[in-house]
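Re-run with default settings, no changes from the original entry. Doing this only to confirm the output is reproducible before filing.
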Amino acid sequence: MVTMPKMQRNHAENAAFGSIEPKAHTLTCQESLYNCLVMPTLRSADAQLFYQVTGNGPDVVLLHPFPLNHSFWTPVAEILSTGYRLILPDLRAHGESELGDGPATMQKLADDLALLCREERIQRAFFVGVSIGGYLLFEFWRRHREHVAALVLSNTRAGAETAESKANRLAIAEKVLGEGTAGFIEEMLPKLLSPATRTHRPDMVDAARRMMQKMSADDIAGVQRGMAERPDSVATLQTINVPTLVIAGGDDSVPLAEAELMRQNILASRLQVIANAGHYAALEKPAQFAALLRDFFDGLPRP
């Protein structure tokens, strides 16, 4: 099933603003483990949402970072799908999922995730969130913690936006609406991938670029405005009472102190740092990331 209106909007924007033309909607099977399958959908109050399910075993929900989509997880999922049932949504406004009405707030994203749990009959699961995936998991914990058996918080932070970072997100939203997405994407790539990846893995840089190009200007603006309003979650950390793994990239733009703050405030949590990885550690070092997840999950009771 394909959301043609969103595709047409992306292609129209590429033509108008001269951005790099993305590949056709259906990627090759070599690029994604899931492209030969039809993506299931569910409908929230205001948006059509897409996701993938693969593998067998305990449920693991993998939440990708902004501005990518579920294909971010392909290398990790190829490793984990032999032992776990993986649920990989395209978050609201990302990939093939629609933005809906207004900003993509953390409250909306958390409620979307709860809807997905009901759709897939997930009672309890292990949840993994990268960047915005972590932001929404804090909100999900506050609203729907009964579904959470364990958490992995990767390349994320608990604190709210500063006045400066909030203003910057709102300015980016206005800029992409006026100028298109191409400039934004090229500015983002060096901030999100490690120097080693940018130098030695141009294929990975291009894969990230193609995922970003699936988002329209409206999508990016809607998510930036939603993140600008995300609540402070530092106080929430001390309420988390499930096993928690915190993962950071050695070259992440998010300071390591943010990961340390989560480790110090979440009871019995632990922190792992992946060297030579940036904000997209799971994409850049999938074998190491998957090994950390498997080691963590294998030591827990089944949800």
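The domain at 4-298 is CATH 3.40.50.1820 (Rossmann fold). Residues 163-179 form the longest helix (17 residues).
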